Amino acid sequence: MGRNLLMSSLENASFNIVLQILFRCVTFITNAWVIRNVGHEVLGIMNVRLLLLESTILFLSREPFHRACLGQKDEVSWSHIMNQIWLSVPISCVLSVIFVYIWINILPLGHPEYASQYAFGCVSVAFSCILELSSANMALIAQLFCFVKLRVILDSLHIFVRTLLFVSIILYDRSLALTAFSIAQVGSIGVIVLSYYIFFYWYVKSKPLYTKGALKSKLIPISVMDKLFNNMDDFTFTSLSDFLPKYSRSINSLFNKKLSTLTVSFAKQGVVKQLLTEGEKYVMSVSPVMTFKQQATYDVVNNLGSLAARFIFRPIEDSSYFYFTQMVKRELPIQKQDQYKIQESCTVLSQVCKIVISIGLVVLVFGQSYSKTLLFLYGGEVFVESELPVQLLKSHCLAIVLLAVNGITECYCFATMTSIQLNSYNYLMVFFSISFLVLSYVLTFFLGPVGFIISNCINMFSRIIHSIHFINKKYKNTSYKPLKGLYVGKFFLLSLCIAGVICKISEYRILPDSMLIHITVGGVNFLFVVFSWCYENRDLIINSLKKFKNKDSKTSID
């Protein structure tokens, strides 16, 4: 197979970062407009309650199957993979019935005027999840065969359709905000699912024609077709029926035992990981810790505080997970694997660790002096009258550093753990989950919303310690140092300290008189910090540039 997995993963991460920036910009603008024209309560119901329902159903029904099937293309038959991934659809139906009942009948709403729209929203979100999972097989194939730009195009289309439908209905009648959200959710997902099936229907029909030299199209350039079809000999699908599950009377013919075991391990892990990821929203929903207005404020600040995580860290983690699953075999000791692949994967892990922790430290240092400025520019003077939003954003800056390290180290662990190790880690994750929920409730009771962030920091720090221990143990008897990237360098740290002191002085002395000068001071110091990092890591930058310049177009297939 001629596809370059490293380059495809890097390209996927790059496109995802751009896409996340586009998506979040649209979301922030929409949220700001909703706050000013519809109200905090509606935004809290949409962004906390309804989106929590979506993430709960999707994460529990999609993630275990998707993660388990990613690294098994060369070891398990396609029929087994398709049967396994399609199980997510009936499971999502069962979960939808359960969680929609809980969301409507058990979780308190407190706003009778929104009751009918809220119930419609819960049903619509659940239906959109089931609809989305009907194309989970296509999404898996697109990732396994490195159709990078296809996913980018479809995700961009999803953003466009959802925003267009939502804004159009709101402009018609602002009182239908929750209904608009529901219709936009279902409509945009429907377009994506239909697009996946149309593309692969065209692809399986066109591939034999391209092989024979008989494929001609005025709409698609030859260069694009070359990238789509070259080096795709292992793409054995010949019709849409190959993407559907295959029935067999024998259970062994239906499902692969190893793949099923791995899926169950990820499913157990998914439950506790979902609690860790969305724990604060579950606490908000179950207990009357905050009103919907306060939840909306927390959500806005949380989104601003996690810009780096959503724009950069998450795409890097997704691409890295795919890359590590292809490079490192789960069941074999390091010494018995292809040492070239191991060396490359260790280098990549070290470099990614250095990049993400450097970004996290920059956010931490500059966030302490520019949180108030950012919130003022986003929400206006009224929004920053209370010190709470500023405290929340400053606390998030510390969480981002831990999130950066935890994301990539845990990603490597999940990609390389054996089934037995995954099962063992599930029990530890249960402990993390329970501790996190208890800490969230207790600290929020005493410290308010800031307690959510502090408990999250404690939880992530504990998980980082475990991940580092696992990786060090895995490479204990080798010469590889995959975690040396966690040390960012003395010159970079010194520049951060200097910049932090100057920006803090500027916040107290210059900001009250001129915000523009304060921002200029921050910009100059930011460039100084970036220059110091580039100087200290010039070898990494030079090597990365060489790889991109020397990339053979034949090894990168969209």
Describe this protein's structure.
The protein is mainly α and 558 residues long. Helix content is 78%, strand content 0%. The chain has 20 helices and no strands. The protein has helices at residues 5-37, 40-70, 78-86, 88-105, 115-133, 136-144, 148-172, 177-212, 222-229, 251-254, 257-286, 292-305, 307-327, 339-379, 388-416, 419-447, 450-474, 490-509, 515-536, 538-549. Helix 13 (307-327) runs parallel beside helix 15 (388-416). The longest helix has 41 residues, at 339-379. The radius of gyration is 24 Å and the shape is globular.
Please describe the topology of this protein.
Elements: H1 5-37, H2 40-70, H3 78-86, H4 88-105, H5 115-133, H6 136-144, H7 148-172, H8 177-212, H9 222-229, H10 251-254, H11 257-286, H12 292-305, H13 307-327, H14 339-379, H15 388-416, H16 419-447, H17 450-474, H18 490-509, H19 515-536, H20 538-549
Short key terms for the protein model shown above:
558 residues, mainly alpha, 78% helix
